[in-house]
Amino acid sequence: AGSPDRTAASRPPLVLPLTLSYPNASRVASSRSRRGLAEGGHPSARMRLHDDLLTNGYYTTRLYIGTPPQEFALIVDSGSTVTYVPCASCEQCGNHQDPRFQPDLSSTYSPVKCNVDCNCNSDKSQCTYERQYAEMSSSSGVLGEDIVSFGTESELKPQRAVFGCENSETGDLFSQHADGIMGLGRGQLSIMDQLVDKGVIGDSFSMCYGGMDIGGGAMVLGAMPAPPDMVYTHSNAVRSPYYNIELKEIHVAGKPLRVDPRIFDGKHGTVLDSGTTYAYLPEQAFVAFKDAVTSKVHPLKKIRGPDPNYKDICFAGAGRERLPVIRGISKG
């Protein structure tokens, strides 16, 4: 969502389709100011999308960088700030969905020159970035600026933006199918904050995912009106650099877990991260949750999870009608 004091209702919202991609783990990174609900026009276009969260661990969108445009499939990640793609000169990058970005083929590319506000490369000529994530993967490279466009469904014209050109990636970032990350968190390098600071969109973004048996989704960058019957909860930007909510209870089959609500009230609250595949709970809450769910599905056969590195609790033959309804109750 977006900050009420920075709303731009008259500016066109930016619509990006989310597309299918392959398994990956959690993403967590850097920070900035408040972002809340905002008013504005409806998106100019939508398109049907497809995914299966049981076999695909993240969502991607298509981003086009340079002149002429070079196309990339990027994980939409509200838990990090930098948008980056593999550079043509990268010596430690995996094989991904699309060809690497070639700065020399873009007539509008320019390096972000070394300055007092950034870390610099070895010859002090260009700004650099480095990010490490919760699942121990990492990305590093140089910062460049170029024309970024968002596809034919967007009303927003192409804009100049700063992004990362990777020289090295490790862990899941190296092995994933997607090309890179689109950082939607709060921070100077966030593509959201860059567009807002330019005054071309309102200070809000929205994501909508289809259900397991529906699939698909859509993302809107820019102000749009909230439905009159929307139920929402507050995110405290002072408390945490991450988008967060105050979770009060978890109900399984209509019954609240028997845990102290303060267990959900840690340093960052409950973080909303579109780049994280799974939900994570404090240990006490997880044990109570596991026991509550297991007690409702005991007739089902336990099976091993898909990843041998983790002790996942899985069941065979668990159709939706045989699983308990799970609800999270947040403040407000």
Automatic annotation (TrEMBL):
Q: Which InterPro entries match?
A: Aspartic_peptidase_A1, Aspartic_peptidase_AS, Pepsin-like_plant, PEPTIDASE_A1, Peptidase_aspartic_dom_sf, TAXi_C, TAXi_N
Q: Which UniProt keywords apply?
A: Aspartyl protease, Glycoprotein, Hydrolase, Protease
State any single GO MF term. aspartic-type endopeptidase activity
Signal sequence range: none
The entry's active site is 77, 273
UniProt record, GO biological process: proteolysis
Tell me which Pfam families the record gives. Answer: TAXi_C, TAXi_N
Residues in Peptidase A1 domain copies: 59-332
- Keyword RNA-binding present in the record's keywords: the answer is no
Going by the entry's taxonomy, the superkingdom of the source organism is recorded as: Eukaryota
Any keyword Hydrolase?
A: yes
Protein family per UniProt? Belongs to the peptidase A1 family.
Please identify the protein, giving its name as recorded: Peptidase A1 domain-containing protein
* Lineage, opening ranks: Eukaryota, Viridiplantae, Streptophyta, Embryophyta, Tracheophyta
